[in-house]
Design goal:
115 residues; mainly beta; 4-stranded antiparallel sheet
Length: 115
């Protein structure tokens, strides 16, 4: 079992920045594919970004060039740096960890972009 705890969400104006963090409970964190997903009201959950154990990343087209995912295996934490935030980035953001067919989710953190 892996427990994931997100933090860093909040209210920000358009064009602003936030950094989300996801802390994991297992020391084998480095073996997991880590990802961030988001779900806006009335919409399906969608992949935002993910990072492999080796550090390879991929992003949704809507966030490319604005968001950066990273991981610190020593701290059992991964991060999502979000810059140039837009109104449409408003959503609950969820951290995900995957390994060998198993998938774990955090409780989510709210990101609201509003003027």
């Amino acid at each position: 079992q892996v427990q994931l705890v997100e933090s860093g969400g909040g209210l920000v104006q358009p064009g602003g920045s936030l950094r989300l963090s996801c802390a994991a409970s297992r020391s084998i964190f480095s073996m997991y594919l880590m990802g961030w997903y988001r779900q806006a009201p009335g919409k399906q959950r969608e992949l935002v970004a993910r990072i492999t154990p080796g550090g390879e990343t991929n992003y949704a087209d809507s966030v490319k060039g604005r968001f950066t995912i990273s991981r610190d295996n020593a701290k059992l934490t991964n991060y999502l740096q979000m810059n140039s935030l837009k109104l449409e980035d408003t959503a609950v953001y969820y951290c995900n960890a995957g390994l060998a067919g198993l998938s774990y989710w955090g409780q989510g953190t709210q990101v609201t972009v509003s003027s």
